[in-house]
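Components:
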Amino acid sequence: MNVLFPATADAVLEALRAHPDARLMAGGTDLLVRRRAGAVAPGVLVCLERVADLNGVEVLGDAIRIGAATTLTAILENGAIRERLPLLRDAAGAFASPPVRNMATLGGNLCTASPAADTLPPLCVLGAEAEILSSSGTRRMPVADFVTGPGRTALEPGELLGSVTVPVPGGGTIQHFEKVGRRKAMAIAVVSLAALLRVEGGVIAEARLAWGSVGPTVVRCPEAEALLAGRAPTLETFRAAGESVRRAVRPIDDVRASAGYRRRVAANLLLRLAEKAGPAALG
Amino acid sequence: MSPLPSMGSRSRRFDAPDKALGRERFAADEYPENLLWAGALRAGAPHGLVRGVDTARAEAMPGVVAVLTAGDVPGANRQGFIYWDMPVLCGDKVRHAGDPVALVVAETREILAEALLAIEPDIEPLPVVDGLDAALAPDAPRVHDLETGNVLKQATVRKGDARAALDRCDVVIEETFFTPQQAHCFLETENGTARMDAAGIIHMTVSTQSPFRDRYEVGQALGIPQERLHVIAPFLGGGFGGKDGVTVQCLLALAAMHAGGRPVKMWWSREESLLAGYKRHAARMRFRLGAGADGALRALVCDLDYDTGAYAHLGVEIMALGLEHASGPYRVETLEANGRCVYTNNPVAGAFRGFGVAQVSFAFEGMMDRLADRLGMDPLELRLQNAIRRGDRNGVGVAMTASTGMAECLAGLREHPLWRTRGAWVREAPPLTRRGVGVAAVLNGMGYGRGLADMAVAKVRLTVDGRFRIYNGVSDMGQGNSPTFVRMACHVLNQDESGMELVQPDTDRSHPSGSAAAGRTTYTYGKALIRACEAMRDKLLHRAAMALLVDDVADLELAPGAVRHPATGRALPLALLGSKLHPDDRCCVSEAMMPVTRDVPEGGEAFRLGFPHLIFPYAAHLARVEVDELTGRVAVADYVAFTDGGRVLDPQTYEQQVQGAVAQGLGYALWEDCAAEGGRLLATDLSTYVIPGAGDLPDIESHAVETVEESGPFGMKGIGEVGMNGPLPAVASALLRMGLPMTRAPFTPERILAALGGDDS
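Structure:
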């Protein structure tokens, strides 16, 4: 196996041109596991760990730009993300375990495109945008469109995910993330929920909801979001939205949980928002 | 001179520095020069007839040294302990998906992997016996050719007429409980190295709990005289029963016989360990318990079915312990316990910490909780009222003449703040959360039991430079028996640890002392070691008397590094003594046996070996448990264990045993399940077979109830197993109090959510 260590994004693109069958590797926490199991056998590996321009967190006014090769640990420890994107921070905190977070990257999590990816639901509700690099230029698209299915992305041959830009929600927005795994660390999500809730005058002005692990990729539920809008954030309100959630999700049975469990819990997780939003509604 | 660590004080473990610094060499660390790799091809099919195994392509591959099949196995080709039913390599039939059908020896691991893929087994599938129901069906396919179908052993143990007594009880409770197969998940998976020397002797270094018995088992299976097998058992990276009996040994010895004198290494991957390693028996337990309105236990009738998987291993003995412990640590007037040990095409079940008892603990404690509920009694008081006390006869009629601290453990729990404040804690549950506080009272027979001498032979040597070397005879798999041996020897010989050396089991150097199992290691070998050290002390005082011109050895004493004459202050350094003595004279060997009962319960004669027991450690556990109503997730917030293990010799090792057992027991309660579908495991690695991590476990508080076990070394008895038995029933007890009567372990969020009922929250 030939392993390359380019130092710039341009050099990565050049390597992809020279070796069209090459696989990109950031932290390798997914790829190397699959390689050990014999699921992939890349002849050329292009490693991203030394590419400085793909790494780092930058505050751009009302948005935060995160390089694709930024590790989950760096996201977890970043002050701006902790203060302004607690939703993403919580998802990073629920991700695998400290040693894996030291290696795994945000771009890797998106490009692996697992239905259970921890960072996908938060990035979707936050309206994050992916920046895609290629030798012919740069294009952008919503992260929600970037992942097209299990293990599938919108990347064309020769393209590279450069960064993700995340708009910071306005003040007074409640950001909530919950991951249901089979244990606290080193667990693949059985269900996860990312929610943005803007509460004004005691009622929900806007709700944005996204679930992980209950469909081929992130599941949104516009019907539930519409149901919540204009109502007080009480248990009854969130319970009433449950039926539309149970209809919207498309979970499967696997060794981790049954489809029925996932469907029921996907709806139940909304009820946690009452606790979080209740005080905001009162205040 | 630092003060000598006295028995019962807290000090550093003798084995800690080498392990912390990475200097300790486990079997897996052995990479002898010029080594070859061996590996087995697993059947894949859970049940089938072997039509043939085409090895031609593998044999032709460069770097492949040998490809072996059943026809190449020289001996009986049967492994086992009492029932010799497990082929080394399967030639006619495969009985579970992990059965080996071919063995490859190759130059590298990579070539080995490719050669295994190149072998083509031709297996004609048979209907799969996927569990107890399928195995016990009238027309069930037979896993083995037994006249009794798939029932390997059926037995009944009786005390009085329990059925008649049941009819006369004020209250009768009936329930059926289910426990899953559990995997040991030791850090160091099954492995070893082997080499056959020019004289035809096979030298093996193996991660094993039973080096001496391995010689017998390998010898029988491969037709090799035991004298030609030399087994070394370094510290293990965990065992828990899963390395009690051969794992890699027969395959490894067979590989060494075809390696041209080169060393061979075999090391199962985690996936292979889960597929082919032993498991805890899954069990189904139907209980009927009768009591008086006052809570007195009058009658217990139970039917226990243990799924032993494809082979017997120690399944019959495990079932026997289930029957023996079916009535728990309680006085029950009458008992009828019926057991069946059943073959299926599931993974092979074998020894596991809590050997048959971890299963029934869930059942008898579940019955006590239900009885308390029915009678409106406090569950702890009901247990205390019925707790077995010294002098009582237990459920199978054996008189409890040894230390019996069950009531003291429960009394400790009753006074504990977490028990006393349980009402307030439950009332203060946050929204969408239920809380409950559970208790469990458990026990676990120590030692092999009647019929199989629980014996150990200790050897201690004064080295030529005046140090003492202990030849441990029972494997140390991390439980800490061997550092405790050092502490015992230091105490008897009045030395500090700098004067001690420790040798791990080696069939050429130490003496047969049984397996590291049954909570017996420190007890039995420790008893023998005290005698050996006392003999050594006497010997050295006598030998020194001449040099020091002392007339009476009573005037002499052993001191660190010397024999001293306090009256004059003169001393003879041990180094000098060591250099003067003949090597034969520098060694003391002594033996000891664990006492057994002469009471043979009615029905007990069905078990020649290992039934019943005389000495029991006890424990009372408390769990504060929270359930999330939205997800069904169960969190154990706090945990307390009171343990009667007799006198505590080393508080740190004691606490580690309790905490490790509780962690493994909580895994059994909440996560771990080797569920199989059609004989194929659903969880094939540690990403799907879930064991708890640090974040999932509560603080575990350990308290010792120090009864004195007069028969034990320094008054101790073994606690390696008893702690495993408490967590499952303690968590179940807490859940029952929240209105969640769970009968099937583990208590997964999915099962809890179903028990919570409703459809949307």
